């Protein structure tokens, strides 16, 4: 089996975990194979100079970006250094990307890809805290703040920091099969290997906290009673507002409609029950306010791309004992 070459781009103030997380996955996959194959990792910087990560760790690259051969996978990590990219680095990224079969960014590495024009007209993501900034700075990029990672053709972008491990595991599964990816996940003691379209964070974090106490109380009530009557009319009564005023105010203060917020809370609660309990799908659907297993199935397929039973099978906590 021919090894797939992975070129990891290094620069000053890179986030060290954006580099080491994916590298550990790729190296582990190679070592797990019963025959030569997997990945050949090469790190490179401008001129081959050592780089200092944002945490103070010094990394000595394997060589220079100028002399690096064309890679199968070009991996661009993020970090504070993306805020002041060297034009020579952007030029080298553009040159390597033109020859790579797959272009990958971790966290804010998406800013470097965007700077090189590699995300124009494409759907992409980055760390949730920087999605708005990426969209403002590069309006030609279709920024999606929700997923853990996004694939658009040969370009794959991921969310913040540890999402790079999720992305690398997904690429290993694509290249070498699910069995190898699961084995590496167990070795790294990854608690939950997340699907790419899973939300980066919980509904409570995704939405802003309302300024008014009645609306904050409604948010708490929704989180604590996902199986209850969470219609706009019922929640408006709890907030002591008319349904129309409640819906308008809730969206204004949280950045999310009541229906969308309820949908996220219910899905999040259902996922936790599937991951951590042996409760049946019918029981979970009732506990989470879906009413029927079919309603929950539709919500899972629409949002996560898999039915509840498949989600439980693939993304339950890994047995590493």
TrEMBL record:
InterPro entries: Class_I_gatase-like, DJ-1/PfpI, Homeodomain-like_sf, HTH_AraC, INH-QAR. Residues 216-314 form the HTH araC/xylS-type domain. PROSITE patterns: HTH_ARAC_FAMILY_2. It comes from the Bacteria. Pfam families: DJ-1_PfpI (PF01965), HTH_18 (PF12833). Keywords: Transcription, Transcription regulation. This is GlxA family transcriptional regulator. It comes from Streptomyces sannanensis.
């Amino acid at each position: 089996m021919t090894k797939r070459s992975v070129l990891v781009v290094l620069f000053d103030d890179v986030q060290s975990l954006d580099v080491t997380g994916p590298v550990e996955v790729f190296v582990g996959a190679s070592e797990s194979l019963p025959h030569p194959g997997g990945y050949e990792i090469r790190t490179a910087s401008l001129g081959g100079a050592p780089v200092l990560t944002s945490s103070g760790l010094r990394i000595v690259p394997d060589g220079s970006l100028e002399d690096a051969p064309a890679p199968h996978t070009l991996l661009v990590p993020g970090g504070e250094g993306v805020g002041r990219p060297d034009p020579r680095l952007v030029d080298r990224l553009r040159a390597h990307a033109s020859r790579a079969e797959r272009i990958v960014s971790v966290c804010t590495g998406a800013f470097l890809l965007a700077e090189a024009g590699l995300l124009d007209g494409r759907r992409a993501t980055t760390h949730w805290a920087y999605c708005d900034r990426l969209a403002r700075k590069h309006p030609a990029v279709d920024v999606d703040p929700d997923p853990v990672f996004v694939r658009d053709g040969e370009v794959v972008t991921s969310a913040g920091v540890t999402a790079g491990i999720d992305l690398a595991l997904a690429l290993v599964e694509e290249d070498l099969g699910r069995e190898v990816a699961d084995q590496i996940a167990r070795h790294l003691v990854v608690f939950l290997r997340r699907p790419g379209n899973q939300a980066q964070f919980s509904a409570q974090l995704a939405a802003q906290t309302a300024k008014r106490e009645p609306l904050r109380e409604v948010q708490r009530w929704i989180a604590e009673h996902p199986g209850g009557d969470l219609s706009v009319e019922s929640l408006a009564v709890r907030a002591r507002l008319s349904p129309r005023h409640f819906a308008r105010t809730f969206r204004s203060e949280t950045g999310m409609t009541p229906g969308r917020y309820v949908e996220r809370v219910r899905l999040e609660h259902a996922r936790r029950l599937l991951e951590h309990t042996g409760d049946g799908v019918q029981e979970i659907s009732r506990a989470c306010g879906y009413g029927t297993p079919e309603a929950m199935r539709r919500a899972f397929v629409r949002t996560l791309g898999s039915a509840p039973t498949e989600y439980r099978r693939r993304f339950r906590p890994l047995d590493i004992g």
